[in-house]
Amino acid sequence: MALSASPFSTPRRARSTPRLLSVLGWAIACICLLPMVAVALAAVTGGTETLTHLLGSVLARYAGNTVLLVLLVSFGTFALGVGAAWLVTMTRFPGVRVFEIALVLPLAFPAYVLAYAYTHILDHPGIVQSSLRALMGWGPRDYWFPEIRSLGGAAAMLVLVLYPYVYLLARASFLQQSGSTFMAARALGSRPLHAFFRVSLPLARPAIAAGVLLAVMETIADFGTVAYFGVQTFATGIYTSWFSLADRAGAAQLALCLLSFALLLAMLERAQRGRAKYHDPSRGQKHQPPLSLAGWQAAAAMVLCGVPVLFGAVVPVVALFSLGLGSEQDLLSPRYLGFVRNSLTLASVAAVLTLGAAIILGYYQRTRPGRSSAAATYAARLGYAVPGGVIAVGLLVPFAALDNAVDAWMRQTFEISTGLLITGSIWLLVFAYMVRFLAAALGAYEGGQALVHSNMDAASRSLGKGPFATLRRVHLPILTPSLLTALLIVFVDVMKELPATLIMRPFNFDTLAVQAYRLASDERLDGAAVPSLVIVAVGLLPVILICRQVGRR
């Protein structure tokens, strides 16, 4: 009997495992879609009075500032990222090996941390203007100086921390291009710069567009920088409506506007990427020999590559360190240790949960390729296009209603108040992080999964192993570096995340990012420098990992 039962038990397990993967994959996809659906329903059912008031008061300002900020950041990240990538890839000048790694360092800095540092340096009482007044003998009204707390200042901060997205993707594309087409353009009489615009840049267009889109998504999701600089955007409007005005319908309607804008950008990028076809038949045959620069050209290249590193990493660290030395903040005090513990707890739990969801979705798509798995994975990726404030509103609206309904039923039935079971815990905040950063973990997981050949799956099946055993015994050991990278990326992203944390955190559960924002809002920049430096120090971990990969390649 035992011998006759085993042939049937294995197929039954083989059928049930993919079904379980399908259920889990679509459950994750539905969680990722829930905030968007909830925001849309709350906005539609919120009445037209709030929307009419928004249209007549602040909506045009929010939209104009958001669009202008996106345009400035798009142009700035494109210019800095593509220019630096072409210089370190296609030319040789003193220090190029150092710059190709150092140009990634600003990625470790949240934009709001740079805002604190440069306010200390460039604001009216800052060291720059104070030195100018002392040196020139000027009074407060005797000179003009650019206002750092402005839309232009916010755009500059975002450009300095977001250009590495474009730099990394553009540099990878330039490295993969064959030199034959570039040299053919040179042989036809084109100068190097002209050949770059006519040949290299069009071939790298898909990678550059992807990098600029990442920068744009981070721009519309940013809250700390624009709030500190007093720039009114959709992100600040959502927070103001939710907390300051206690207008849930208004917050939902602003969130729907921002969500629509983000999804429109994502669809436009996907559409242009789907239509664009780039074929390089000579790819891989001959690499382009780098151009050797000397004299003023080498000096100019060093300046162009050094400026982003100087102003995006070196100057902020020096400014924050000098501020922190003069503060009375004690990192070893019980209060600060609580901030550190809360931040590490949220980041660790969210990173593990997000990585587990990425593994389930990635393996579901591999074992059951088709429209269903592709749709689930695409739905899960949409969270990266949704700002943290939108996700927070989208999760709080339905779960707050559920908490109130459960509390009312328990009061009526048992005369017991349950309070906020879900919205008063960290778990809803952790789910918001998972929705926000699942796309990043999926990208790292799928990049490593390409190394697992399909023959390995077939060999595992021939040895009698089921899908879960194949995942545990074959895939995960090979994917360990990619999994660690995904875990680290999500960990650091959660450490830096501000809008969702501000809106959804439980009472008396503050993090380093919240503490830095609170102190900076009270104009206590010396105090805000201490938690900011800790966030930057943690953010350097994945950047160092990326730099090592860049150096090896």
How are the secondary structure elements laid out?
Elements: H1 2-44, H2 48-56, H3 59-90, E1 91-92, H4 96-102, H5 111-122, H6 127-136, H7 151-176, H8 179-187, H9 192-203, H10 205-221, H11 224-229, H12 234-244, H13 248-275, E2 291-292, H14 296-325, H15 334-367, H16 371-381, H17 388-414, H18 426-449, H19 454-462, H20 467-478, H21 480-496, H22 499-504, H23 512-521, H24 525-552
Parallel strand pairs: 1-2
Compact description:
With 553 residues, the protein is mainly α. 78% of the residues lie in helices and 1% in strands. Helix 1 crosses helix 15 (334-367), helix 1 (2-44) crosses helix 17 (388-414) and helix 4 packs across helix 24.
CATH class of the largest domain: Mainly Alpha
Q: SSE order, as H and E? A: HHHEHHHHHHHHHHEHHHHHHHHHHH
Which CATH architecture of the largest domain is right? Orthogonal Bundle
Instruction: Using the alpha-carbon principal axes, give the shape.
Output: globular
Q: What would you give as the CATH superfamily of the largest domain?
A: MetI-like
Structure description:
The chain is mainly alpha-helical. It has two domains: 34-109 and 151-326, MetI-like fold, CATH 1.10.3720; 328-523, MetI-like (MetI-like fold, Orthogonal Bundle), CATH 1.10.3720. The chain is built from 24 helices and two strands. Strands 1-2 form a two-stranded parallel ribbon. Helix 17 (388-414) packs across helix 18 (426-449). It starts with a helix and ends with a helix. The model is unreliable at 1-14 and 278-285 (pLDDT under 50).
